[in-house]
Predict the 3D structure of the following.
Amino acid sequence: SDVSRSAVYVFDETQGTLQVWEMAGKNTRFITPVGITEDGAGQLLVVDADLGYVVRLNQQGEPIGSFGKGTLNRPTGIARDAATGRIYISDTHDHNIKIFDDTGTIVGTWGKSGEGEGEFNSPTYLAYKDHQLYVTDTLNSRIQVLSDTGDYIRSIGKRGLYIGDLPRPKGVALDQDGNVYVVESYYDHLLIFNDQGEFLLPIGGTGSGVGEFYLPAGG
């Protein structure tokens, strides 16, 4: 998803082709497509923050439905539990996580505005693995880890001035070994933590060269 281009880019390395999907509906274009994930049927779910809902695209990039209108305020991140079909969406302006089923029906809400455990300040990107939801709690300068029942497990990172701190995290991803990758946009790094939240390695730094970043975001 490319926010500045207001579109979804589809790269086919084998065929050497690039497709640009711009439409969120029959007469509606994407404005701010941020989060993106697959559903259980091989289709794509695209969260558009300014439209305020989730668009479902088929494999040809054609809009075939949407959900969350009137329920989501400013949605950004999205993650899906393949086992249960639950779809987690971070609602940045409502400072919570909203949960939907595969039909697009809301089934729950976690969290509220605050700095405590399980509370959020402008949550953005999400990642889900092994019954745990990782939430980029951006303005609280941390990654919060919740169980699949919404209970607080632990936090990763803190506000600070040094490489490895998270003054402005804006992305999270996980690998098969349990390592946690955090995009830190203020200092322009990709930071790697182990599954217990211990800082392992920084990648990048501010610049325009290969391997350098400027205000990175995304998971």
The two ends are 11 Å apart (CA to CA).
